[in-house]
User: Fold NitT/TauT family transport system ATP-binding protein from Salipiger abyssi.
Amino acid sequence: MTEGAIIDARDVSLTFQTNDGPVHALRDVNLSVEKGDFVSFIGPSGCGKTTFLRVMADLEQPTAGTVLVNGVSPEEARKARAYGYVFQAAGLYPWRTIGGNIRLPLEIMGYDRPVQARRVKEVLELVDLAGFEKKYPWQLSGGMQQRASIARALAFDADILLMDEPFGALDEIVRDHLNEQLLALWARTQKTICFVTHSIPEAVYLSTKIVVMSPRPGRITDVIESPLPRERPLDIRDTPEFLEIAHRVREGLRAGHAYD
Ligand SMILES: Nc1ncnc2c1ncn2[C@@H]1O[C@H](COP(=O)(O)OP(=O)(O)OP(=O)(O)O)[C@@H](O)[C@H]1O
Assistant:
């Protein structure tokens, strides 16, 4: 295992057996994520980004290779509640309040009520939703709902946050705002974040490490260590350094594209 790695993937392959034959979702994926990294996975549809996140979260089993999370298997890491997972859609239960949604995993795990109440308050503050505990999801905007789902993923105070295109369905202005807030949250909590996106500017703005993937079979074609400072105002996107990284990501995507 690489020294200091919080996630270590070695020669990971995953083939789905389907009625139309095998689908090679991942082939020979090697990746090391350090504690406190913000890693984005970018690549065309079907290149295995979600599959890789699901392998880390113990929701899929690789066909070959090994993955270690905090030095143990994904299954052991899941049982130790090493990660929170944020999905593409906010996925909040409409019949529960925002507080009730965030509390649900804590209720299931049998946390004491005062602990539940304290955690709900803390995570709502972290995502700037203090005071919205008693609202229902439909009373919140799409961006606020997505923040509530991030709060739910933070409820266990897991070290690792796995985020699968959480802002994909939101308009650009809301997305910019959430990107800024996510960076602030990351700085405050020192979490390790793995983030799937289709957006080059989003990947470059957020990440310390950008993983470029290509499809058929899904594999990593480039890993870019970002030289940008960790503190990033939105207008950093107009700087030559930013544009240079964006250019390299674009080249990586182009090189890996099959055009079929
Ligand atoms: N459970 C499954 N059974 C069969 N094939 C699957 C399964 N899950 C994913 N696949 C296939 O594996 C490949 C990778 O899928 P995956 O969802 O990981 O891609 P992705 O890069 O996240 O795509 P997108 O950007 O569209 O979300 C695709 O060809 C997909 O059809």
Notes: The radius of gyration is 18 Å. The chain is about 35% helix and 25% strand. Residues 172-189 form the longest helix (18 residues).
